[in-house]
Amino acid sequence: MKKSNQKNIKNIVIVGGGSAGWMTAAALSSMLSPDNVNITLIESEQIGTVGVGEATIPDMLNFNAMLGINEAEFLKATDGTFKLGIEFNNWGQIGDTYFHPFGNIGVDMQGVDFHQFWLRSQEGGSAAKLQDYSICSVAGNDNKFAMPEQSPKSLLSHLRYAYHIDATKYAKFLRNYAEARQVNRLEGKVTKVELDQETGNIFSLSLENNRTVKGDFFFDCTGFRALLSGKALKTPFTDWGHWLPCDTAQTVASERNGELLPYTKSTAKSAGWQWRIPTQRRTGNGHIYSSKFMKDNDALEILLDGIDTNLIGTPRKISFKTGCRKSLWNKNCISIGLSAGFLEPLESTSLYLIQAGISKFITLFPTAEISDLVRNEYNKQMLKEFYQVRDFIILHYKATERNDSDFWNYCRNMSVPDSLKNKMELFKDAGRVFRYEDELFSKPSWIAVCLGQNLIPKSIDPIVSSLPLKQVQHSLDSMQNAMKHAAKKMKTHEEFIDFYNARSY
Predict the structure, then answer these.
(1) What is the pLDDT of the chain when averaged over all its residues?
(2) Which residue in 83, 265, 269, 360 is the catalytic one?
């Protein structure tokens, strides 16, 4: 075998800290030896981060496992709590409530999706909600939590969970992790980006202290500024504001109050929605809205009216544009986080898209002479991730019956991407859902939102519709009782966190 003469990447430069920057630094430092690759992160303490609280999805567990992070240590450092799903209020109609749980809803029977049996029971007059057959939802409703069990015979094997964390503390936690693995942090603002005249690649960065930093590969984690990918490399941005019209957020943290809920709350308002993310010591709050349909002062008033404890700090206004870069890997630079694109945090996908961007880069880790094939494959896979998340978020706005404001009239009547239109029409016709190309959101997620927002199929699976109603109802009643019994034996969410911390230290 011939000796390889390939040139490998020796110097990686990450511009920007926050969750995006330090997740990138931590992941790369866990996979690459400092003897082979130098990793430098440049950030300025004068530039703040966006979030006051962050909700995640279960894939975060995979990221932590990849880094070898101890869960109890992680929760303690980030004031983390557990999350079993999201409660949606006022999305279908004002007064409606439904729960989008992690994990399964019910148990499929006779090779047919469970929700078909639930639809059959509704024909018979059952008042049970779809969420009553999800152990995550039932436990969440009772403010209970337990760890999943491995045995498939146990109901607890259907539990899936994620976290609520303090985003600022999470970045600090990952910074300690990365610096312990010899990531070099430089304080300062980037004042100039030097491009190679022949290749168009980024060659070096100038900092405000007259320091120059050279690199073979760069990560743009500069948030909405997109200093490298947008300003320097002029990577085009695709605007999705016509499908996702919200473009502004008012955010503020508040003191903890009452029970520590194991789920995120999302409450639809007249021109957007308000989130509530509970961590151990405080609650993250935000109101996302469309500035075309609501004035800033009115939006701020709605945010504050929805908070029942003292504020921590002052409210902050954040303007954004929904969409993503046409190429997330351009030349020798990858956009991670808000510099890559923004999809509002309705389904808590922000950290997931960061995680996906990092993981796919590691899988496709290039030589210093970057192949177009590798770059194109990365862009293909990451754009698919963005498109699929985009469609799922649009679903929440499109599948509404609200007609109480111009905003909701717009959302209800707007055209949607063909990829989403086909999924919605298939579900409306016969309640069918399929998962394509390993998309992030599984069948139970689509079913929870569609049925939760009153998108009721015209027909039921013929196999199920021919079954005696009494037989179907008996199976569902047994399932529901088992869920209630399992949740009753669990500790409260706060009791479990105290127990977990005591057991782990």
Answers:
(1) 95
(2) 83
